[in-house]
Amino acid sequence: MCADKPKIIKIGNSKKEGSSKSMSALNDITTQTVPVKLKHSGIKRSSSKKSKASVRKPSKTQEKKTKMMLQREHDNIPLSVPFVNEEIEEDRGHEFNAEDLNKLRKMWELPAICHILWLLQDPLKLPFSARLLDYEIALMKPTNSTLLDNIITTLLATESKGTKAISFESGVKLRYEFWSRHLAERYKRKYHDWHTQFVDPNASPASRTSEQAEKNSDSSFFPHKCTLSYLGAQCPFKDASFADLTIEMRCKVLYNLCEAIVNDTKNINYLQQMEEDDLRIEPLGFDRVGNAYYFFTEFYHDRRIYRLESNGEAWDLWARGEHSFREMLKKLEHMRGRKARGEQDLIEHMRVIIEQYEAEDKVHAKQVELANRKAILDAMPRKKSLRLRAKNMARAAVERTVKSP
Fold first, then answer.
1. Taking the model in full, what pTM does it have?
2. What whole-number percentage of the chain has pLDDT above 70?
3. Which range is the signal sequence, renumbered to this chain (predicted)?
């Protein structure tokens, strides 16, 4: 017979748990096994006090790495604060809920939604806006947004094609009062299917029967759990309409709906024909502490840079508009010390974006100049030839003669 494999005891569930917890757990295990060994060997335990565990000093390599990391964090201070202005020209004329807008700009789902809509604008026959601000306004004011009416109506009609789930054809644009009801019915139906097949999604695995566990592992019901668990165990539309949801949940619902459309077979085939560079969003580059910076080329009327922290936990809007881009590039170029891997890529990409701004500024300046010239010429009195002037004078004299008694 083969010998049993030794059991491996894992101490600490993640890297975030400190070394002190690991050492204390290890000490507990060793102190429990010591009396057994002493008993079998016939040696009595001494009553002397336990000697303190010797603290292991960090090696020179660890000290060097720590020092380098601290130095990088210090050198990266110029990039530690966002370069976003409180208000730029594009925002004027719009009323915002500052708190909701700030929450939206910390969600990676919104740029992802827009990227999906940009990729599928031709098969969906859905006009795309080159300003991310328009989509932010649509989610903050869902009851009065033509853009959101078009998006959700199109997505619902596309998903329900060939089924009796929704009673309207693609191409018909519904107002909020109608599409919000259809949207709520869709999610209530899907949550009902999920809950009836998966029993209680909040129940512990130990409380489930073998038959229920077999149902939960069935691949035919996996899509329900995979897609709906992202929105929570309970249906968000249980006692609320779309406008009643929090701004975060509205964004998540729209992203969930876009994901369902992407997974459609026709759309998958369409996307497979596109260039890989268009499908994937790669970071422009990285800073010295490993933060990644993202830029979405489709928003050429609302250019932005987002930052994803090195630990992948925080997503933030870091630069928006020409002024903030120039300020960020200036900080990058004047940072001291050796350039980190990916930092030079970030600088070069930002230089290209600034060049695009400058080219657009030149075109805009030329258009303004031509418009001013046209306005001046239109305002000037037009010159007439001597022949036409004499003819008009003769005609006026004849008219005066006829009118006189």
1. 0.69
2. 68
3. none
